[in-house]
Amino acid sequence: MLDVKDLEVTFTRGVEQVHAVRGVSFRVEKGESYGIVGESGSGKSTVLRAICGLAPTSGGEISFDGNPLPVPRDAAFYRRVQMVFQDPYASLHPRHTVDSVLSEPLAIQGFDDREQRIERALEEVGLGQGFRFRYPHQLSGGQRQRVAVARALILEPEILLLDEPTSALDASIQAEVLNLLDRLRAERGLTYILVSHDLAVVSHMCERLLVMQHGQAVEELARDALRARAAQTDYTRRLLQASVGYSREDAA
Amino acid sequence: MSLLNVENLRVTFPTRQGPAEVVRGVSFTLGRERLGIVGESGSGKSQTGRAILGLTPHPGTATADRLEFDGIDLRGLSSRQWRGLRGKRMSMVMQDPKFSLNPVMAVGKQLMEVLRTHGASRAEARRAALEMLEAVQIRDPERVFRAYPHELSGGMGQRAMIAMMLVSAPDLLIADEPTSALDVTIQIEVLRILDRLVQERGMGLIFISHDLRLVSSFCDRVLVMYAGRVVEELRASDLSQARHPYTQGLLNCLPAIDGDRRPLPTLDRDASWAE
Prior knowledge:
The structure holds two protein chains of two kinds.
Chain A: E1 2-13, E2 16-28, E3 33-37, H1 44-52, E4 57-64, E5 67-68, H2 75-80, E6 81-84, H3 88-91, H4 98-109, H5 114-124, H6 141-153, E7 159-163, H7 171-188, E8 191-196, H8 199-205, E9 208-213, E10 216-222, H9 223-227, H10 234-242, H11 248-251
Parallel strand pairs in A: 3-8, 3-9, 6-7, 7-8
Antiparallel strand pairs in A: 1-2, 1-4, 4-5, 9-10
Helix pairs in contact in A: 6-7
Chain B: E1 4-15, E2 18-30, E3 34-38, H1 45-52, E4 61-63, E5 66-69, E6 72-73, H2 79-85, E7 90-93, H3 97-100, H4 107-117, H5 122-135, H6 141-146, H7 154-166, E8 172-176, H8 184-201, E9 204-209, H9 212-218, E10 221-226, E11 229-235, H10 245-252
Parallel strand pairs in B: 3-9, 3-10, 7-8, 8-9
Antiparallel strand pairs in B: 1-2, 1-4, 1-5, 5-6, 10-11
Helix pairs in contact in B: 4-5, 4-7, 5-7
């Protein structure tokens, strides 16, 4: 469904160049949930932003259903692909109510039945109508992230790009948001691309995953291979080991 | 004898709706060991750590029936007395090196400042600072010594921060989410440094974190905080036998690489936990 081929992203500032993504390729099928794992600076978020048209691609090709994506992305693209960002504290406008956050994409895309769509979107993410006219500062972190998910889903997209959707949240709230994402995917047959530094989250949510380091794809593996600890590269093995926690043997 | 004695510690902030108590009667003792304090945001874990160092931000106030460090009563110390303790005998590592190092002062100078304040000569301070940078596994201490904080990566910055806090060889270190801003592989390295210091120097360590799994694999003993209270205290190795429903809930709601529970169990908060 979505095909990324030899993607390169270079940020240029003056004479300085940062080569953030160096030739990454992967393919995501319809209805699949695909994970991208890596540490900070590995370029994992940049890949998502490049798909969305938010990062300057300097090489490679991204195609959607076989057609290369237009630059800049058009409204039709955003109708089908939406993104949820990491920090719900930063990604919602502090002076817009939940209602206006949800109305804006509907207005841009020229949807009808806006009233019902907003009501339904709030119900679906487990927020009642009572939240409709609140401002972000009147919501908790988990509620904000639910609003961000509602905003992405209100256009009934096919693909959801999730950039660390739970890393700013407490563990118990993370569980709620992950369950919500899981349920919505099952109900709507959504396709996910989820970026996270947390192997456990990716293993819970995704059938296949790509490990990135220094802007390059290190290896791609299936969930079963991850669970069997059948990593091919040292780097993935190190990540797996670190995710267990600290062990005294490490100190020796 | 224990290093730190805390009895009935309370931290209160005045609000428009009247005083809000964010730490409500916390008591514990600390020996020369690794004690973890775990809780979610707003549980009062950071305020507990700050109150021990007398760093409760204005206009909050901290009171306790007993707050003793190595036989010294910490309640009602003068600013001068605090200066003699903080940095020298007890210190704190904060979460994010970007905000806790001075951005316009070279790292080495900041390290030396700690020692100079407590009476070391320039040459002594320089030597000790370089040694400390080496001790926290910085490969090129001379370069880091001259570098400004923005020239260092997150992991390096956090190591420099830890070096600064340890250069005066404190007896007590309070580490507030020292590794949360770091990548997992670097996280383990930083923990290894702290671990070694506890074992070699017999330092007391309070490790504050939201990450129950990490804390239980690293610390000897864990306090679980909820709504300003300690709801459970247990040996880290006995975590799987936690009795309080909040601790159990926190453990259960984490996704695991091997687990495939769908939906994940969520935490049903009981009003009685906050009582």
